[in-house]
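Side project, low priority. Logging it here so it doesn't get lost.
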Amino acid sequence: MIYEFRTYGLKPGSLPEVMKRFGEAYEHRKKYSQLAAFWYTEIGPLNQIIHVWPYPDLAERDRIRAESLKDPNWPPQIREFIVTMDSEVFIPFPFSPELKPAQMGPFFEMRSYFVKPAGGLASVQERWEKQLPKRTPLSPLAFVGYTDTGPLNKYVHIWPYESLEQRAHIRKTAVETGAWPPPGGAEVLVSQENKIMLAAPFSPLQ
């Protein structure tokens, strides 16, 4: 399974109309394949939407996209509001949960890390696999994976929380108890970013 993360930067003030039009168009698009999640940013880089599409592989992605683009109701009529567009295809870590319909949020934190080339991702996966069983009893992991297309040597991890207060408490507890982050992980990191997102009403993952 692969996941395409499409991130669009929008004109300020356009988010409500964009989500309305996207939600209406998605009713036609879902017969070809369904979303894994649709988020909009609340903290961090504002005026962004992130829609995540799962596919068995790149060939199936190309086939489904080509078929859906023949539909007169797709893509959504939001071009006038779009400032930037980025597409990244992620491969899940072997132990990553599947992104599937669920009630997990409503707050989702996406953390994007770049690592050193030549072995950085392998080191990350090894450290995560050892340490994750200590972290997930505090709160579940929604997804972790690395880029196959787009900027390389990048991985993202997404954590759902019931509230920002819960997030702060869990992160504090994780550090104080040594449950997280994985020991030595900073050695392979080049840069880190994060954003807090909320799910659109039509997102399968809430």
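Brief comment: The mean pLDDT is 96.
Revisit when time allows.
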